[in-house]
Write a structure and sequence with these properties.
Layout: H1 2-7, E1 15-19, E2 31-39, E3 42-51, H2 55-64, E4 70-71, E5 78-79, E6 84-87, H3 90-101, E7 102-104, E8 109-111, E9 122-126, H4 132-145, E10 151-153, H5 159-169, E11 173-177, H6 179-184, E12 186-191, E13 197-201, H7 205-213
Parallel strand pairs: 9-10, 9-11
Antiparallel strand pairs: 1-2, 2-3, 3-6, 4-5, 7-8, 11-12, 12-13
Length: 226
């Protein structure tokens, strides 16, 4: 669960793991831990994780009269499986993500969402909306990228205001089509967090964003000790 929190962009320093003492434990639980998040309005439970032992299946078997045993295919040993109960709240998770990402800087407000949870991954702009050649090229890029990524097309207002709008909704990258694009087939790609800009060939954009936006999944082994 800790890895899940970090995977969706929750900073380690903003949540804590608290273990229930004996007086807090439910009758069915041998061990329970809470994941607590430091919200703006105070520290509140985000998730819970309870080790229920074999309480559930033992009682189901007792009152149903049906034997609920698992047979180990290697040893032939029969036993009642134990249950681990994680509890998740979608609304609490979204609120924690927003609290973690919301950032006020000197001249802008930024929602620094992890790219995995950002609703829009890439925004595409023509530098000027009254230049048909720029709008046409921007539309072509938008249509090509939207096949793979959640994209937004924006030509309303000056490019600085468009950047600010995308910053506030957490869009990780903005692509601007300008007059240089018409000469060399490159566009400006702007990073939300650093505001750094770089020129990227149009033909390389899909590979560029695949590298930047495709989640890296890591599987970890779990060991269980008695």
């Amino acid at each position: 669960m800790s890895e899940w929190l970090e995977y969706i962009g929750i900073k380690k320093e903003n949540y804590a793991i608290r273990e229930h003492d004996a007086s807090e434990l439910s009758h069915y639980s041998k061990r329970t831990i809470d994941f607590e998040y430091n919200f703006l309005f105070g520290t509140k439970e985000l998730y819970g994780l309870a080790y229920r032992t074999n309480f559930d299946l033992t009682n189901h078997a007792k009152y149903s009269g049906v034997e609920l045993l698992y047979t180990d295919p290697q040893t032939g040993e029969k036993f009642i499986p134990h249950c681990i109960e994680p509890t998740f709240g979608v609304e609490r998770t979204v609120l924690a993500i927003l609290c973690d990402a919301y950032t006020e800087e000197e001249d802008r407000i930024v929602l620094k969402l992890d790219s995995k949870v950002a609703p829009i991954k890439v925004a595409v702009f023509p530098l000027l909306r009254n230049k048909p050649e720029l709008v046409k090229k921007a539309r072509e890029i938008f249509d090509a990228l939207r096949v793979r990524f959640a994209c937004d097309f924006d030509d309303n207002g000056n490019v600085g205001k468009r950047y600010r709008r995308q910053d506030e909704i957490g869009t990780p990258y903005c692509v601007t089509v300008d007059f240089q694009t018409l000469d060399d087939d490159t566009v400006t790609v702007r990073d939300r967090d650093t505001m750094a800009q770089e020129r990227v060939l149009i033909k390389d954009l899909k590979d560029f964003f695949n590298e930047k936006l495709t989640p890296k999944l890591v599987c970890h082994s779990i060991s269980v000790e008695e």
